[in-house]
Design goal:
The complex is a heterodimer of chains A (1013) and B (197). Chain A is an alpha+beta fold. In chain A, α27 packs across α29, α28 crosses α29 and α34 runs parallel beside α36. Chain A starts with a helix and ends with a helix. In chain A, 57% of the residues lie in helices and 9% in strands. The longest helix of chain A has 20 residues. Chain B is mostly helical. In chain B, α4 crosses α7. The radius of gyration of chain B is 17 Å and the shape is globular. In chain B, 36% of the residues are buried. Classes of the chains: A alpha+beta (1013), B mainly alpha (197).
Amino acid sequence: MDLDHWKQLDSLLQSVLERPLEERDAFLRHACAGDEPLERRVRVLLSAEPGAKQFLERPAIEVAALSLAHDHESGDAPVHTDSLIGQTLSHYRIIEKLGGGGMGVVYKAEDTRLHRFVALKFLTDELARDREALSRFQREARTASALNHPNICTIHDVGKQDGRSFITMEYLEGSTLKETLAGHRGLEMDTVLTLGIEIADALDAAHSAGVIHRDIKPANIFISPRGRAKILDFGLAKMGSPIAHAGADSPTLSSAATEGGMVLGTAAYMAPEQARSETVDHRADLWALGLVLYEMVTGTRPMAAVRLRVEQSPDLERIIAKCLEADRELRYQHASDIRTDLQRLKRETASVPVTSGVRAALATAIVARWKIMLPAAAAVLTLSGAGYLYLHRAPTLTEKDTIVLADFENKTGDPVFDDTLRQGLSVQLQQSPFLSLISDRQVQQTLALMGQAKGARVTAEIAQQVCERTASAAVLEGSIASLGSQYVLGLRAKNCNTGSILDQEQIQAARREDVLNSLSEIVRTLRTRLGESLATVEKHSKPLAEATTFSLEALKAYSMGQKANLSSGSATAIPLFRRAVDIDPNFALAHALLGLKYSDVAESVLSVQSTTKAWQLRDRVSDRERFFIDFLYDRDVTGNLEKAYQTLELWLQTYPRGEESPKPQDLLGGLSTHGTGRFERAIEASQKEIAADPDVVFGYNLLASSNFFLDRFDEAERALQRATERKLQAPNFLMIRYSIAVLRGDKDQMDRTVALAKGKRGAERTVANIEALALARSGRLTLARQSSSRAMDVARQEGGSEAAANYQAARAVWEAVCGNAAEANKNAMAALELSNGRDVEYAAGLALALSGDSTRSQPLADDLEKRFPEDTFAKFTYVPVLRALSALERGRSTDSVERLRIALPYELAVNGLSFRFYLGGLHSAYVRGEALVAAHRYPDAAGEFQKILDHRGIVGADPIGVLAHLQLGRTFALAGDKVKAKRAYGDFLTLWKDADSDIPILVQAKAEYARLH
Amino acid sequence: MAVDDVSHLLRAWSDGDQLALGELTPIVYAELRRLAHRYMRGERSNHSLQTTALINEAYMRLVDYTRMQWQNRAHFFAVSAQLMRRILVEHARRHNLKRGRGVHHVSLDEAVLVGVDPGVDLVALDDALDTLARVDCRKVQVVEMRFFGGLTVEETAAVLKVSTVTVRRDWSSAKIWLYRELTGETDDGLGSLETAR
């Protein structure tokens, strides 16, 4: 924004306005003196003058009242008297009430951060006062939030504000099954089966996770506009049901039990054992599903006196009867069995795609178009009595559909085509903003649920099942065969619900080298046939050779690297990506992933090399990949985290549906948000990452650390606990757990964590380093040095020289703040010998500067400034802190304070050192406090030291968290406030009661304290 | 609602107590509904003295400064104008959402129906004011006091300690700029500050 331009423009506009109309033109031309852009701008504004006359002349409240009045007259929703509406709780703006039930009230709200609608559920006031009910509400919501299934309404969050607990969940459009059934005499058989399969699958997933619904009924099943089922209120129903509160005495139940186990009234969907108030297990849900199926077919609930009868289908009648066995031992035992039976029935009976009836009416969003039916849908032809190809309305895909890629069927005998073509296909399809693939990770998860071995081949049949389980629309099958010296490539897209073929393409490649090009070609055709507009296909389709590589071998190494990364982590993937770029040095995406993996294992130099290479080649990649490379380059090479963060948000906006890793949702939890203080955004992103895949370590790690940095230690612990429950381990988990224990003074937990870390790669050294901080924090420097040395030794043994350097530099810093200049000096110089990494240079420089050696710290500041001109940490924290200390040393305290001003915006974010827990943050505040003391600005100085005490998470186990008490005492003493000074000194001396007695700062502190009396 | 309570809440809000806003909101909403109700009963046909009186009455009821113990009148006016801006914009935002209306939409038929000049999209106005604030805070204050706070030119001048001429000038040029932003003809985008660099 240019202030001067605005002023010029504004004053000119006012001068013109003061003149009579006829003079304006000449005046303006004269005043602008040939500055055409300026003249044009003024004229544009002038043209708005007549319109602006009456503008804003009525007070705002009148404008608002008029529009409100108009709403009333048009007979719309009445003005809500509900006090919650219009309010913002946490970051949810409440818009309207959606409904209320026995247990709670549900509102529609806008998530102001993600700009999406959500539903908020509140407990009724009565229940909210019941402490036990409340804790159950929260516990159940947490259980339900673990369920991640397309047919279960997702729980996003459990929140509390102003004493009101609420659950945030997916906002659903459509209507409940109850509403859908009202006025219908049953649904079409195909719809019943489709919905039944979805509900059974959802129940199967929930039961596998140990969650029982207990209140399955049409009112709890939502049907989306596209005809998909979503089960509501998972885990919540339990507490609302009479069982949980009243037991068998409940009046609704006592009169309800009838012969044959049928029950009426509110308890109508309860299984007999449930109505008898016996212990209930998952089979109660299967009973209820039987009733729901019956009601979907007939439109009514089975009456006690009427024999169960499903005229349309004896098979379905059998399935329902087996659900409704009064003795649960005779019932279906698992939801998956019901699903299988329904699927079988559907395959046998259906195949005529429903084009009329309820489902079609619901599925208005599906764009249907005329299309030639292919022979594979022969079943349809037989049923309809037509023996030849005919025109038929077959829906192609819509933008909401996802597709599953099957492995290529390789009939050539040449192993280079294994995996490679599927990878190539995946890269090609990911360029499409229209199509969305089920990610490899999701495929693996689904395979595990299906009892398939990890890494099993995704055959056409398995892909079909994955497609059904993930509620995807289609399977894409590919094949390659040799034909003499030529190759024949085939692709086929199949609707996995109906089995109909959506498109089929074939192409020949003359030589092996041409196969990838040919693949690119048919993918383009396929995309348009599946419903993508020609325009986007044109816009986003770089041929494979350009978007990735021309080399089959390089692509093969790359796809193996992706697989290895998924199954066994970064370390195993590195050599494979390395091989890919060795074969094809222009393979940009492989360079980028290599860079990412190197940075995962903290090899910053190698990571910078690979990422830079990828960035130089980034014109060769697709748009989606370019976002990734731009992000990585800013995060790891320039260090401009603000830019890195913006790229992620833009990437997410452009490709909100991307499922393939690396994806922006996952990266948002990390350094770019932590380093710019966007912890809430990080929390949100990590939670999403966990919801998408509960078995990935990163999400928990970042969720725990963001909460830790916000002083939410309980939340951080909870995240770690969730990871532990899933048997996940990471060095960082122990590091965070130990830090929490330090801040809570929980000695037992500290000891336990040290014991747990012992001998574990990565964990032992990180914990030993924080142990050193914690010991230094209580003045036990001799022990602290031992721990620090151990951290360095183990790091060196593990080959992590950069980590060792960071430990030593961190040690130099705490030696310096304790006043041991010689030790600080020695360790700082030794650390610089080991590495010239950005964080090492800063920490060493900080130690030297704190010890009054700015002749040696200034060159380090110069070097940081030169090497990292855009780097967020260097620019806003590292260099300013070093410069400020130097100014302070030369007695220029005001200059020192001024230089630290730039550090303020990111002061409560983490920096490179505190992100990895090498040291704590807020050294900038510590130095500012000292500078303010030197400038005799005591109240301001006290504010800085208090800031350190108030942000325990950001400071972590760093000794300045305790030394701030002493500095506060000194500040008060200088300000003449003896009472406060004594208290602060007292706090410090108590915390250092076990300290080594010869520490310079302690000796001084004691002398100063004595003088206060 | 006792005036003293409003005064107390206003002060709390200006001291950074966000909860106070939550308590003030329903009070303003109640007034808004009362006004709307009067319009519905037919007191909207002509905008006469009666309407003006009605609006004044509304403001008086909300922020009757004469009976309050404020050391600094200017501060009080600034705070209450800001409060009205916050609440009314919030109301409009919710209203827009509920009606599925685009943010920049100014409903002409609505204006015709209720017999006033074209309405103002408060949400878009709020955004535009934020943009303006980056280069010209005083104009934003003037708009806040005149439009959201319902003050006259003279009152505004007194509060801001500037001449009435200045207020008039600020008011007219701010209105032109804002009007242009809101009517949103981006043919050449030259009216926008963003491109005035």
